[in-house]
Structures are given as structure tokens and as C-alpha cells.
Write a structure and sequence with these properties.
It is found in: Membrane. One of its GO terms (molecular function) is magnesium ion transmembrane transporter activity. Its main location: membrane. The chain has helices at about 1-5, 35-60, 80-100, 105-115, 115-125, 135-150, 165-170, 175-200, 205-235, 235-245, 260-265, 270-295, 335-370, 380-405, 410-430, 440-460, 470-475, 490-500, and strands at about 70, 75. It is mostly helical. Strands 1-2 form a two-stranded antiparallel sheet. Strand 1 (about 70) and strand 2 form a beta hairpin. It starts with a helix and ends in a 5-residue tail after the last helix.
Length: about 500
């Protein structure tokens, strides 16, 4: 039984795409040529489309109001916007990824699909205005590097078809049974933890706390403008004396028109009159700037329509993100340490669930390929199909929960890293692919797994050592700031500290 299980092991694919049905088909153009170019284009398009779909789902889940904007004149309800994101996900993972498998090798296809981590950072910054800190950028790149190492060290010559008896042999094998039990146990622990946290510290309260922080930041900006305008008012007399003398003072920020120049040349009385008029114009300009600052929302994670407040002609809610103060004491917010822990548990459990879906999908496709031999009536096939359907439906729930609570730029690398880790381990341990690997291939896979784990760990850090010593020109190309600009846990304590520095209007 063990020998049959080894002969029937299936090649693993270290990607987060659930489509494996076309992997047994021969490539149309494995060498150079138009087919290879098409395969590269389709693989990169698959990564970009999947990353874009994740950002659409995040946008639909956090945007306030009964409607959100898809295009300039197209508005959808948040639920239908989320469904649209799922459709885009299906186009990327089921369409582009499948087409790429017809033209290029599986190794190249997997490496190119991993570029979704880079596309995700771009979309999260451009569309959701998420802050790309060095831990997030470096962590995503390290996970990408680990994926490439695993792809290079993948097994060659592994069978792609096996019978239900061989699948039973994988489950009965000691290492297969231990691995699958550990995988299911980790997922169950994650699900129970998520349910407990969601009941005690709802995601909606976390979003409200984030909006309150943005409101206070807006108030702080207005207060800063007031302080600057007062400082400019105190310097008005000295500035006007310089203007009367014929010298413009740029630091005062005052513009002198031709009437003021003529008054200065006429005499002291006319100059005083011009000074009074100039001072009034300065105050008017300061009030106008203050009004504009008060009405301008800061760039934030929460995206709403950029039109007037209230409800526009399309019926979309466009109220300001931070117009009404929120009492933080009434919100049920998780402690900072717990929120940091769950920032890993949420996306990692989603990735492990996708790993189960990928494992069962491989087993299902390989058994279906032998249906002509009369093996499709075995109970193992129906058990695998039921497990695949259940894990796939669970993914839909997980996507809503994870990307509503955490930013895409931090959650997606962890999710993808966990899914890749599970896929690689499924091949090495469950499907016993080590029997088809050389020692160097095994070392490459183990090194790739360690690199992926280190990349996930970097994503969770607040800052990276020695990054602050790099030239700002280097870090400014990819990162928004040199250190984490905000806390991922919007706790009452953090909001209270922010409130101490802000005078409420």
C-alpha cells in the first residue's frame, strides 16, 4: 500500500489558485515563441487580476453608505461590489491562470503568478491609500523569493493520476495522517479564535474606531492651520513695514497689490489704510484656507465618493468619514497584543483552508482522470468532493471576515504565504513527493519554506532594523514611511493618547 501511494503521488503547486484541472494537459509552447509569450502574459494577468479582486472586496466591505462607486458614473451596493470582486477573482484564478498553463511550464507559471504580491501592494496604495511600510514591502518580496525557491526545487516526473485506493493509502500512512490531522486542527483553532474575537470585539467597532482616529487627525490638521494663521497675524506689522519700505517678505505669505504700493508711496496715512486692507485680506485668506482644510478629508483606508456630503444624485452615501464624534468608550476594541496576534491568525487560517481546498482538488482531479477504469463509484471520491466543496464555501466566509478587518497590504501576503506553505507541505508530506526529489531539491524546498515563514514574520513587524539608516531615496521608491505610521489595533488607549494632543472644536 505504501509503494502504491508513493507511485500515485501528485505534484504540488505552490500557488493560491484553486485551478488544477488543466495541469495535466501538454503545454502548447514550452520553448521560445508566441505561445510562451502568451503564457507569460496570462500568468502575470492572473496575478494582477487576483490582487485587484482582493482590493475590490476590501473596498466593498469597508466603504460606508448604501452605495459605492465602481466607475465614474456606475454605483453598486456594497454586497454587489463584493460579488463583483469574487467574479474578478474567478476570472483571474480560473480563466487567466488556466490559459497560462496551456503555454508555459508549471514552474514558470507558479513563479509568475506569485507576482500578485507585488500587484497587491500597488493596488492597495493607489486605490485604498494604504500605507506601505518597509515590513510590508520587504515581507511580500521575501515571500515571493521563498515561493520561487520552492518552484525551482519542485519534483519532476511525479504521476498526475492515481486511484481511490492510492488516496486511501496516503491517508493511512503515518506522516499523511499526522499532517492532515494537524492541518485540520490548526484550521479549527483559527475558526474558534475568530468566532470568539468577532463576538467580543466586532469588526464594525474596529472600523468605527479607525474613522474616529481619522476624524481626530482632521481636527488636528485644522488646529494646526489655525495656529499657523495666528502666527502669521502676529507677524503682520513687521511684514507690512517691510512692504512699505519696498521690500517684499516672502516668509510672511502676504501678497501686495498695486494699490498697496501706490499707498505706500503717497504717505503714512495711505500706508496705514493699505496695511489695514492688507491685514483684512490676509485674515480672509486664512479663514478660507481653514474652511478648505476642514472640508477636505485626509487620504485614508476608508474610501467614499469624492463628491458633496450627503446623498448624491445616484443615491450613494458620500458623507464625510469623520464628521460625527464617536465615543470610544462605547466601542468594544481588542487589546493591542490580541489584535496583533489575530492579525496573523485571521489571514493564516484562510491560507490553510485554501491549502485544504488545493489538496482535495488535486486528489479529486486525479481520481476523476481514472473514471474510465470504473473507480468513480468508490466512496473516497465522494468524500474528497464533499470536503473540497465545504472548504471552498468556507473560503467565501473567510474572505469577508479577513479583508473587512485587516488591510490588504498586510493580510494578503500572510494568506498567500500560509497557502503556499500548506501546498508545499502537502506535496512533501502527504503526497510523499520526496521520493521523486534529489537531496538538492529537498534542501531548496526546505529553504523556501523557511524563507516564506521569515517573510510572513517580517510582514507582522512594526519596523525593520537598519532600514532607517538607508538613504531616503531608496526607501521612498517603494515605501510610504520608514516606520509603521499607525497601530493596527485601534484601542481605546491609543485613541485616548491621540485625543490628548488634539483640542476638540
Amino acid at each position: 500500500g505504501a509503494k502504491q501511494a508513493q507511485q500515485g503521488s501528485l505534484a504540488t503547486r505552490p500557488t493560491s489558485s484553486p485551478n488544477d484541472g488543466l495541469q495535466a494537459l501538454p503545454s502548447a509552447a514550452m520553448s521560445d515563441g508566441a505561445g510562451a509569450i502568451l503564457g507569460v502574459i496570462f500568468a502575470v494577468a492572473a496575478g494582477a487580476t487576483v490582487a485587484y479582486s482582493m482590493n475590490i472586496q476590501r473596498y466593498a466591505l469597508i466603504a460606508p453608505g448604501p452605495k459605492v462607486r465602481l466607475l465614474r458614473y456606475i454605483y453598486l451596493r456594497p454586497f454587489w461590489m463584493w460579488i463583483f470582486g469574487l467574479v474578478v477573482y474567478g476570472i483571474g484564478s480560473g480563466g487567466f491562470y488556466s490559459l497560462a498553463g496551456l503555454f508555459i511550464s508549471l514552474s514558470l507559471q507558479s513563479a509568475l503568478f506569485a507576482t500578485l504580491l507585488v500587484f497587491n501592494l500597488f493596488f492597495a496604495r493607489m486605490f485604498l491609500h494604504e500605507v506601505l511600510t518597509p515590513p510590508r514591502v520587504v515581507g511580500a518580496c521575501v515571500i515571493l523569493l521563498g515561493t520561487v525557491l520552492c518552484v525551482v526545487g519542485r519534483a519532476e516526473g511525479v504521476p498526475t493520476e492515481y486511484s481511490p485506493e492510492q488516496i486511501k493509502g496516503f491517508f493511512k500512512a503515518t506522516r499523511g495522517a499526522i499532517y492532515f490531522s494537524a492541518l485540520i486542527s490548526a484550521i479549527l483553532v483559527g475558526v474558534i479564535s475568530i468566532i470568539i474575537v468577532e463576538r467580543k470585539y466586532p469588526t464594525n467597532d474596529k472600523i468605527l474606531a479607525q474613522r474616529e482616529r481619522e476624524r481626530r487627525a482632521s481636527v488636528a490638521s485644522v488646529a494646526s492651520n489655525k495656529s499657523l494663521s495666528r502666527t502669521a497675524g502676529l507677524q503682520t506689522d513687521a511684514s507690512l513695514q517691510s512692504i512699505v519700505g519696498g521690500t517684499r517678505t516672502a516668509a510672511a505669505g502676504l501678497s501686495v497689490d498695486s494699490a498697496a504700493n501706490a499707498a505706500a508711496a503717497s504717505g503714512p496715512d495711505a500706508a496705514a489704510s493699505a496695511a489695514s486692507a492688507e491685514n483684512g485680506a490676509t485674515l480672509a485668506n486664512a479663514e478660507g484656507s481653514l474652511t478648505q482644510a476642514a472640508s477636505t478629508r485626509p487620504r485614508s483606508v476608508i474610501i467614499v465618493d469624492e463628491t458633496t456630503a450627503g446623498t448624491d444624485r445616484h443615491g450613494a452615501s458620500v458623507s464625510s468619514v469623520a464628521s460625527v464624534p464617536i465615543n470610544v468608550k462605547d466601542l468594544r476594541l481588542a487589546p493591542r497584543w490580541l489584535d496583533h496576534v489575530m492579525a496573523f491568525v485571521y489571514p493564516a487560517s484562510l491560507g490553510l483552508d485554501e491549502g485544504v481546498a488545493h489538496l482535495t482538488l488535486r486528489a479529486m482531479n486525479s481520481m476523476l482522470a481514472q473514471c474510465e477504469e470504473g473507480t468513480c463509484a468508490d466512496w473516497m471520491l465522494y468524500f474528497i468532493i464533499a470536503l473540497w466543496i465545504f472548504s471552498s464555501l468556507a473560503t467565501l466566509w473567510w474572505l469577508r471576515v479577513v479583508f473587512k478587518r485587516y488591510e490588504v497590504s498586510s493580510a494578503l501576503p500572510i494568506e498567500y504565504g500560509a497557502a503556499t506553505f500548506a501546498d508545499i507541505c502537502s506535496g512533501l508530506i502527504f503526497f510523499q513527493e520526496t521520493e521523486y526529489m534529489s537531496t538538492s531539491d529537498i534542501i531548496l524546498n526546505i529553504a523556501g519554506l523557511l524563507v516564506i515563514c521569515s517573510g510572513v514574520g517580517m510582514t507582522l513587524l512594526k519596523s525593520l532594523p537598519l532600514v532607517a539608516y538607508l538613504p531616503r531615496q531608496w526607501t521612498g521608491l517603494c515605501c510610504s514611511k520608514l516606520s509603521e505610521p499607525s497601530e493596527t489595533a485601534f484601542t481605546e488607549r491609543s485613541l485616548s493618547r491621540a485625543g490628548e494632543r488634539i483640542s476638540e472644536p
